[in-house]
Amino acid sequence: MRLFFALWPDDALRHELVALARQVQGSCGGRRPRDEAIHLTLAFLGEVSPAQASELADMTRGFHCPAGQWTLDRFGHFRRGGILWLGSEAPVPALDAVQARLWQALTDYGFTPPSRPFLPHVTLLRKARRPRWDKLPAVNLDWHYNKLVLIHSVADGRGRRYDSLAHTTTA
Ligand code: 2AM
User: Fold this and answer.
1) Where are the domains of the chain?
2) Nearest to 36 by CA among 168, 171, 162, 149
3) What atom of ligand 1 comes closest to residue 81's alpha carbon?
4) If you average pLDDT over every residue of the chain, what do you get?
5) How much distance in Å is there from the Cα of 113 to the middle of ligand 1?
6) What is the pLDDT of residues 82-127, one digit of tens each?
7) Which atom of ligand 1 is least distant from the CA of 39?
8) Catalytic choice (15, 64, 77, 121)
9) Do 18 and 163 contact (CB within 8 A), yes or no?
10) Topology of 2-169 in CATH?
11) Backbone angles phi, psi at 143, to 5 degrees
């Protein structure tokens, strides 16, 4: 089972992100994620056994994710995969702290934290051309979150579907 931990936008924010992805797709091409699949990944685990998935679901329900907010106000592009993404101009210490604590917990389950620094980003397009930065719209969206979700990435006929396996309990 391919698993990852993520934050999911609420409906209003998701609509804004989908609209933005459509707009930018006009100039950069590429493929948009399914509308309902837009998210922020905090930890990608890869393939785990069903028994491990069940342990991780229990761990998730006991994990504390304090409510917080971050601002989406900058675009970026990863050459690998042609990922056109949206993130934050300023560092986001609260998200960094949740991500670090999550990985700390995951090490007890045998997972190894990534060697690359965490760069919070929301993928809007894949296989997209590098944008003309000055042509991109100005963006300033607030993302209020209060829970972390353990996601099962399932291959289906149309690509990948993201099912929620468990989420943290909100305070
Ligand atoms: P991306 O949006 O930058 O591609 C599910 O695949 C989520 O996990 C995506 O948000 C993806 O980030 C992220 N992810 C991180 N590392 C990954 C990896 N090695 N393989 C696939 N997805 C990964």
Assistant:
1) 2-169
2) 162
3) 4
4) 96
5) 14
6) 999 999 999 999 999 999 999 999 999 999 999 999 999 999 999 9
7) 10
8) 121
9) no
10) Cyclic Phosphodiesterase; Chain: A, (3.90.1140)
11) -115, 110
